[in-house]
Design a protein that fits this description.
56% helix; alpha/beta; elongated; Zinc Finger, Delta Prime, domain 3; 5-stranded parallel β-sheet; Rossmann fold; 3-stranded mixed β-sheet; Helicase, Ruva Protein, domain 3; 576 residues
Length: 576
């Protein structure tokens, strides 16, 4: 007897045999039991996900001698003949090779005749999107009002190519890609049936290479079984599918962390020489880093990992990376992938991406501590309590001396932070209203993504000026400014989140409130902005923008003193 491929031998013959697609199976079975089937169905989805198999099973269940039933019996003469493809009332039509209007007219002419031996005449039109426009037009009327004994099942991988008039006349079912677990369980059934021992890790490699398609998975399994000997081994699956062992990614990732770029380049060159596609390598790297992120999130997500098999060495590797670093790696590789698709020198792009990843600052590579220093936490709590007390006093119209006494205490504690005045002045020269507005619009969202202790440091801070290269954040308290400016990892996290939300790759500059007032006053005086505010001219070129600069045209000493004591938000200047 002629040998048949696995995907033909093990094609499901009932709904219970189908892997995944629970929403499709349940809806069709309920319709069969209630005898509420309609005249036209559209099955759409990726290749190898069970569209044609579901159509044949549905045709058998409609015409089964035991109907109405949720499953075909697969023992009666009707079910057996449909399985063999010899039943005259179940017509399979390939639209890819019969796309002309003449073939469709042949169907239309014969559809009015009653079925020969079954209850329904079922037309299964595969790859229906390949039909010509005239063929769709010819089919339209029949599809809308077919005879009571006719059922149309249209299957396609590209539903967007179908006319809206055709889609609107069908019940649509979208088939989804199968999960790796569904594919793994089906392959285990096949191997147990042929009594071949197997390594489960090898099946995971095949399932990943299949990319959600059961037919692709069974075809690859067929190849690996033919290549293997008495047992299906991991090395056999890696060789046939062109995949790479998780140990190779482990060694290269460890070398990236240690900035051993020579080893990384040697391994990449060896893989490319061995015939590995750089584009596929970048996808596998992204999957590997994604699995490390899942491993960091806890054992409950281990079942979702595609490339890594949980082992102590991988757990240690995951703990040695900060989440921001892994997200940075994935972002670099994803952008590189887009560039590689339009180039013939894909290896060069991947090498450049790995070099960029290896040069990630060491401060972001170290794993961030999950616990906060108790002394630092107590200090933050005390400062928050002091701020709340001061706010309550001000709201009640309390004595300003309390505020006056609070600031010397801060300076006596040794907080001698000096802001980068020169860099801030350069930012002010190029500051625009559009840039600061972008930063302020995303500020609340960035604060929500921070830890509570980090958000507390920025509670009394606000962005006051921004250019295309940097933005300035003013702090009410010197100690908060010092703590944020000295925490390079925190600053890097802030700039990354702002870049993700706004697209601005900007540097964050910190300055206490009293120093900001001095810098702002000097900048306005040196650039003559007071005069320009008082006497604006229409032909004047666009001036640098500082947040709330319309309120600082008058800079009398007593106003500046009041702002330094109470803060600008609590001082209102009224002209007599």
């Amino acid at each position: 007897m002629t040998y048949q491929a696995f995907y033909r031998v093990y094609r499901p013959q009932s709904f219970r045999d189908m892997s995944g697609q629970a929403h499709v199976k349940r809806t069709l079975q309920n319709a069969l039991l209630a005898n509420k089937t309609t005249h036209a169905y559209l099955f759409s989805g990726p290749r190898g996900t069970g569209k044609t198999s579901a159509a044949k099973i549905f045709a058998k269940a409609l015409n089964c001698e035991q109907a109405p039933a949720s499953e075909p019996c697969n023992t009666c003469a009707t079910c057996l003949s449909i399985t063999e493809g010899s039943h005259t009332d179940v017509i399979e039509f390939d639209a890819a090779s019969n796309s002309r209007v003449e073939e469709i007219r042949d169907i239309i002419e014969k559809v009015r005749f009653a079925p020969a031996s079954a209850r329904f005449k079922v037309y299964i039109i595969d790859e229906v999107h390949m039909l010509s426009t005239s063929a769709f037009n010819a089919l339209l009327k029949t599809l809308e009002e077919p005879p009571a004994h006719a059922v149309f099942i249209l299957a396609t991988t590209e539903p967007h190519k179908l006319p809206a008039t055709i889609i609107s006349r069908c019940q649509r079912f979208d088939f989804k890609r199968l999960s790796s677990q569904d594919i793994l369980e089906r392959m285990q059934v096949v191997l147990e049936d042929i009594q071949l021992p197997y390594d489960e890790t090898a099946l995971k490699v095949i399932a990943q290479a299949a990319a959600g398609g059961m037919r692709d998975a069974l075809s690859l399994l067929d190849q690996v079984v033919s290549f293997s000997g008495d047992k299906l081994q991991l090395d056999d699956a890696l060789l046939v599918t062109g995949s790479i062992s998780q140990d190779v990614f482990y060694d290269m990732t460890k070398a990236l962390r240690e900035q051993n770029i020579a080893y990384v380049m040697e391994q990449l060159d060896a893989l490319v020489v061995d015939g590995k596609d750089p584009l596929r390598l970048s996808e596998d790297f992204i999957t590997f880093f994604r699995d490390l992120l899942l491993m960091q999130s806890g054992e409950a997500l281990y079942d979702l990992m595609e490339l890594i098999t949980p082992q102590p060495k991988f757990e240690e590797l995951a703990k040695s990376f900060a989440q921001d670093t892994l997200y940075h790696y994935i972002d670099v590789l994803a952008k590189t992938q887009q560039e590689m698709r339009f180039s013939h020198h894909t290896k060069v792009y991947l090498e450049t991406a790995l070099l960029k990843m290896s040069h990630t600052p060491q401060a972001t590579v170290q794993m961030q501590a999950t616990s906060i220093d108790p002394q630092l936490n107590d200090k933050v709590i005390r400062l928050e309590q002091q701020v709340m007390q001061l706010m309550q006093q001000l709201e009640r119209g309390g004595n300003a001396k309390l505020v006056q006494q609070a600031q010397p205490r801060q300076k006596a504690g040794g907080n001698t932070y000096k802001a980068p005045v020169g860099r801030i002045t350069e930012v002010l020269k190029d500051a625009t209203k559009e840039n600061i507005q972008q930063i302020k619009n995303c500020w609340a969202q960035v604060m929500q993504q921070l830890q509570k202790s980090q958000a507390a440091l920025l509670a009394d801070a606000e962005p006051v000026a921004a250019s295309t290269s940097a933005f300035v954040v003013k702090f009410k308290y010197d100690i908060h400014c010092q703590m944020v400016a000295d925490n390079y990892s925190f600053v890097a996290t802030m700039t990354q989140q702002i870049a993700a939300l706004t697209g601005l790759n900007v540097e964050m500059l910190c300055i206490p409130n009293d120093q900001w007032l001095t810098v702002r006053e000097a900048f306005i005086r040196d650039h003559g902005l007071n005069k320009k505010l008082e006497q604006p001219q229409q032909d004047e070129p666009k001036q640098p923008y500082i947040e709330d600069d319309t309120k600082i045209a008058s800079q009398e000493p007593h106003i500046l003193e009041a702002e330094s004591l109470f803060g600008r938000d609590f001082v209102e200047v009224v002209d007599d």
